[in-house]
Design brief:
Length: about 240
């Protein structure tokens, strides 16, 4: 069994979330913060040896005030991020322990995970070196220029990338060393640019990412129907608490 570290970027500006009180990873969802829902899916696993949450400099004091007890008891590592998502992941990468084989990058704002999806993508990454969760595109896609449709895009072979995205440690380190300031919307793109193949593991539309406040309502319903995480690792002592009271 591979030793896995999980990097959870949470340093974004959440511009589309439109909430003056919360960034999306820190918004309350079914009694606790979005990022805690995501983190607990990994903390309960015996193969996950480290969870690193990456936050913005300006959020450090407030994050520590609200979540300091969680961080200490759950053994979560926290580091400060950079200007872009890739900068934040790179900072998290520098914090990974030396005995780690695989590194999973998972959006802190993606709280609705099931163990079977994590099992599948971890297994594929251990076998192939790089694997991501994704779902096949089912919508009709239009290319638009100045408000007018210029093309209907063939959706065959198109997939929507999700997280976690899981990679051999040396491949991810190599990809970031070669990044040379280039930005990427996900880590798989950097692995691809480094010349390594990335396997697709079919995920689920329920593995949604919180982008707007309406997504919180949907996520709350999804959490009700997902199976509870298996407890083969460290159980979350805060699982039933409302951390915002």
């Amino acid at each position: 069994m591979s030793n896995v570290a999980v990097i959870m970027p949470a340093a974004g500006a959440s511009r589309r979330f439109h909430d003056k009180n919360y960034k999306k990873p820190f918004a309350p969802l079914a009694g606790r913060a979005v990022w805690l829902h995501a983190a607990e899916k990994f903390l309960n696993r015996s193969d996950v040896k480290q969870v690193i949450v990456v936050i913005a400099d300006k959020d450090t004091e407030e994050f520590q005030r609200k979540f300091g007890a969680n961080i200490a008891i759950l053994g979560i590592d926290v580091c400060r991020g950079g200007q872009e998502r890739a900068d934040s992941v790179e900072k998290g990468l520098a914090k990974v322990k030396p005995d780690i084989d695989l590194i999973a990058v998972h959006d802190a704002a993606r709280p609705c995970l099931a163990d079977k999806w994590i099992d599948a993508v971890f297994e594929a990454a251990a076998k192939d070196g790089a694997a991501i969760l994704a779902i096949p595109e089912t919508a009709t896609l239009k290319r638009v220029n100045q408000g007018k449709i210029t093309e209907t895009v063939n959706r065959d072979a198109l997939w929507q990338a999700q997280t976690p995205q899981v990679f051999r440690r040396d491949w991810l380190v190599e990809a970031y060393a070669a990044r040379d300031g280039k930005n990427a919307t996900d880590d798989a793109a950097l692995i691809e640019m480094a010349g390594h193949p990335v396997s697709i593991v079919e995920g689920s539309p329920m593995n949604l990412k919180i982008t707007t406040r309406d997504d919180l309502k949907l996520a709350e319903q999804v959490l009700k129907i997902l199976p509870k995480p298996k407890l083969d690792g460290f159980a979350n002592p805060f699982a039933g608490d409302d951390m915002w009271r």
